[in-house]
C-alpha cells in the first residue's frame, strides 16, 4: 500500500525509506536504524525486515489473496490490493517463471484439498511446501505410514457372553423376554390372569374365586394326586 501512495504522490524512490520511517512505531524505526547503511537505506531490504517483523510470510499473503474482501472500497483499489497480495506471495517464494508460477498455484490447490489433520501433522514445514512434487511425495508417504500403522493394530477379540446375550440381541423382543421368565401377555402387552385366563389384570386382582386343588384319589383339597 505504501508503494502505491508513494508513486501517486510522485515521491522519489530513493527517499521512500525516509518517508516510511516517519510512519512506523518508534521501536520498529529504531530496529531499522540499527541496520547497516546499505540495508537501512534500501527500501526493498527495509520491506523484508518489516514483513519478517509482522510475520507476513508468503503463506500469509496467499491467504490474504484468496480471502480478501472488498469492504466499501472502490473496485480499482480492491484490484490493486489483490495484485499486491499476489505479487508478495509470488515474489516471496521466487516463482519468477511461468512454470514455477503454475506449479505454485497447483500446489496451493492441493493444499486446499488436504484435511486439517494432515496440515497439523506437517505444521512446521507446511508454509515451506511450495513445490507440488515435494508436497505430493510427503502426502503419499503420510498415507502409506498411516495405512501401515492401522494394519498393525491388534484386532479386538470377541467373546460370547451367554448371560448377557439376550440383553444385547435386538431381535429378542420384549414379549419373548417375558415368555422366558414365565409371564404370559397378549400382543398389546396386557398380562394374563392365571386364575380366569383373561387379560388386563393379574390373579391377585381377579374378581373370581381362586380355583381349589382337589385330589382325585382321596377327594381332599389342597393337593393333587401324583401320576
TrEMBL record:
SUPFAM superfamilies: Retrovirus capsid dimerization domain-like, Retrovirus zinc finger-like domains. InterPro entries: Znf_CCHC_sf. Signal peptide: none annotated. It comes from the Eukaryota. GO terms for molecular function: nucleic acid binding; zinc ion binding. This is CCHC-type domain-containing protein. The lineage of its organism: Eukaryota, Metazoa, Ecdysozoa, Arthropoda, Chelicerata.
